[in-house]
Amino acid sequence: MQAMISAVRDKKNWIRLVLSAVLFFAVALPFRQLLSLMPGITEIRPANVIPPVLGLIWGPAAAFGIAIGNLISDILSGSNAFVCMTGFIANFIYAYLPYKLWYSFLVDETDIHPALGSVKKILKYIYVILLDSLVVTGMLSMIFETAGFSGSGSSYALLFFNNFDFSVLLGVPVLIFLGRLHPDYYVPDTHRKKPGSYLFFDILLFFAAATGLLWFIISFAQGAPVDSHTAGELLVFVMLLSLPSLAKPFNFDRKAQRQNAREVRTTIKTKVVIGFLMLSVIFIAFVGVMAYNSRTEADALTHWSYVYRTVGLAINIIFAVAIVFLWYVERNIVAPLERLAENVREFAAQPADSGQIPTPMLTKINTGDEITLLADSCNTMMQDITAYMHDLRAVTAEKERIGAELSVATQIQASMLPCIFPAFPGRPEFDIYATMTPAKEVGGDFYDFFLVDDDHLALVIADVSGKGVPAALFMVIAKTLLKNCAQTGLSPKVILEKVNNQLCENNEAQMFVTVWLGILTISEGCLICANAGHEYPAVRHGSGGYALLKDKHGFVLAGMEDARYREYELKLDPGDCLYVYTDGVAEATDAAGTLFGTERMLESLNRHKEASPQELLPQVKKDIDAFVGEAPQFDDITMLCLMFGKSEEIK
Amino acid sequence: MTINKIKNDNELTVLLEGRLDTTTAPELETELRQNMEGIECLILDMEELVYLSSAGLRVILGAQKQMNKQGKLLVRHVNDTIMEVFEVTGFTDILTIEN
C-alpha cells in the first residue's frame, strides 16, 4: 500500500502515464484511418505492440496511460459507452498483464529487466505475450460480438494472430534495442512474503486463456461460437477469471535483487540476437518485395492480402528458425564463453597486493571446439600463475631470511673491530682512531689495534680480496691468526711469514689478504713495520705535511707459501702521525670514472693536518664523499690513524 | 670488461679490456678455467686494462699457480696504473712481466 502511494506521488510515473497515452493514441489513430480505408484487411494493427512493450518498461503507469489513450480514441470515433468501458478495461489488462507476469514468473534476479538479451528471455516474453493475447484478444472479440460488430467469424481468429504476431515480431526487436539504450525501467518495489509459484492465480489465468483459445478455434472453423447475449456473459466470466492475476504477488525481493543485480552490459548473446534479427529483417523485406512483384490478381485489396499473408508466414518461419538457431548458439558458444569469462574475471579480480594467492576457478567445457581449447589454456594458465605465486612466495621468504642473516653477519663483523673510542683512555702517550664503511652488506676490510704488552702496541690494517660473505669469512680467519700471532711478541716480519703459511694451508678458494702491520714500542717511539702487499702508509713528521712512505713491499698474505717479508723501522717523535688505509680510499670513483687517488688523499689529509685522529678521519671521509657524489661505492673504505705523543686533552 | 682469446697450439693469449673488479673477475675466472686444458704458455695482455682490483688479482694469482704446474704465465703490456697495483701488492715478485 505504501509502495502504491509513493508510486502515485512519483512525478516520473505521471510522465510515463501521459507519454503512454499520447503514444498509443498517436499510433492507433492513423491505423484506424487505414482500417477504414481498407476494410478487408483490418488485421494490420502494428499499434498492438505498444501496450505490452510500454507495460513491461513503465509498469502500471503505462497501463493506465494506454487505457486512457484507447478511451479517448474510442470516444473520438463515437463508440458507445459499453465499448468505451470494456475497451478501457481490456487495454489496461493488455498492458498490465505482461508486466505482472514478467516479474512474478522465472525471475532472474541478476538480470531482471525486460531487455531481451538471451533466448531464455525471448521465450519468456513469447510465453507472456501468448497468455496476454489469448486472454485480452478473447475479451475484445467478445466485446465486439456483444456490441454486434460481428463480421466474418474468422476475423476473430485473425485478430488474435495479429495481436500475438505483432507483439512478438515487433516487440522482440523493439525490446532488444531499447535494452541497449538502458531505459529507465519501472521495477516493482516488492518484498517477497513467501517463495512460491502462486499456482492459484496461474490456473485462473490459464482458464481465461483456454476460453479465449477455444473461442478462436471455433470462430475460425464456423464463425462466432455464441450469440451476442451469451458473449456478454462469457466476457464477464473471462474478466473475472483474469482479474485476480492483476493482484498476483511479485515473485522476488527488490532489496535482494538490487544486491544480486549484475552490471548491465552488452553481452555476446545480445550481439548475436541483434545480428540475427537484422538478417531476418533483410530476409523479410526481400520476401515482401518478391510477394509484391508476383502480382497475379488485378484486385489491389486481394493482392495486399496475399503480400501480407506471405510476409506473415515468412516472419513466423524465420522467427521459429531464429529461436532454434539462437538457442543453439547460446548453448554451444555463448554460455560456455560466459562461464569461462566469469571464472577468469573472478580470478583476475583478486587484488595482487592483498597477499592472498587466488584459487584458480577451473572451467570444464566439453564442446570439443576452440572454446574447449581456450578454456583448457585458461585453466592451465591460471594453475601456472598460482603455482608461480606459491614459488615466488617461498623464494621471497628465503631471500628475506638470507637478508636478515646477512644483516646479523654485518653486525657480528662490525663488532669484531675495535670500535670504542678513545680506545686506551689510560694511555696518554698516543691517540688512535679508525673507521670502516663497508660497500656491501659484509666486507673484506679490517683494522685492528691492541697492546701486546705494556710497552708494545700492535696496529693492523688489511684488505681481503673480493667482497661479500667469502671475503668476510676469510677476514675473520686472517684477523684472528694475526692477533694470536702478534700477541706472542714476535716481530712483524715473523708474524707475517707465520700467518702467511697458516693461511696458505687449505686455501682452496685462493683468497688472499693484503696486510700492513706495525708494532710500536711506546717508550721509544720506534715503529717496526712490515707490508704484505698493502697500500703505502702516509706519515707526518713534526709540523710538516702527510707524505706517502714508499716502503718495501712483500707479497700478499696467503698468496704463496713460504713467502719472505721484510721489515723496516719508523722513528716517531711526539706529535707525529701515521695514516694507513685500504684501496677503497684511493680507488673511490666518481660518476665519470675518475679515481680519488693518493694525490687527492694527501691533499685532503694536509688540509686538516693539525686535526686529531678522531677529527681527521671523518673529514677525509667527507672529502671522499664530496668527490664521489652520486656514484655507488665500489669498495670498503677503511682508515686508521695514530698520533704519537701526548693527546690534546692531556696537554 | 671484454675478454678476447687468441689460441695458438698450446699458447693462449688473453686480451683484457676495461675494468677487472669484483663484478667482472668471475667472468675471467670462468674463461680461464675453460681454456687452460693443455696450455703451456698463457699470456695476459693488459694493454687495454684500466682498473685492477683485489678480486682481479686473486684470479691472476690462481692462474699463476695453475701455470706453475703446467707451463708458464706471461703478463704483457702492463701500463703504469696496473704496474703500481702489482708493485704495491708485491705481485711483481711472483709474476713474469714483459713490456
Could you explain the architecture of this structure?
The complex is a heterodimer of chains A (651) and B (99). Chain A is an alpha+beta fold. Chain A has 19 helices and eleven strands. Chain A has two domains: 258 residues, no CATH class; 222 residues, PPM-type phosphatase domain (Phosphatase 2c, domain 1, 4-Layer Sandwich), CATH 3.60.40. In chain A, 58% of the residues lie in helices and 10% in strands. In chain A, strands 2, 3, 4, 5, 8 and 9 form a six-stranded mixed sheet that branches. Chain A has a five-stranded antiparallel sheet with strand order 1-11-10-6-7. In chain A, a hairpin with a 5-residue loop joins strand 6 and strand 7. The C terminus of chain A is likely disordered. Chain B is an alpha/beta fold and 99 residues long. Chain B has one domain: Transcription Regulator spoIIAA (2-Layer Sandwich). The chains are: A alpha+beta (651), B alpha/beta (99).
Set out the fold topology:
The complex is a heterodimer of chains A (651) and B (99).
Chain A: H1 2-9, H2 11-37, H3 50-58, H4 60-76, H5 81-102, H6 119-147, H7 154-169, H8 171-181, H9 199-222, H10 228-246, H11 254-260, H12 268-293, H13 300-349, H14 370-416, E1 430-437, E2 445-453, E3 456-464, H15 468-486, H16 492-504, E4 513-521, E5 526-532, E6 538-540, E7 546-548, E8 553-554, E9 567-571, E10 577-581, H17 583-586, H18 597-607, H19 613-628, E11 637-644
Parallel strand pairs in A: 5-8
Antiparallel strand pairs in A: 1-11, 2-3, 3-4, 4-5, 5-9, 6-7, 6-10, 10-11
Chain B: E1 2-8, E2 11-20, H1 25-35, E3 41-52, H2 54-70, E4 72-76, H3 80-89, E5 96-98
Parallel strand pairs in B: 2-3, 3-4, 4-5
Antiparallel strand pairs in B: 1-2
Helix pairs in contact in B: 1-2
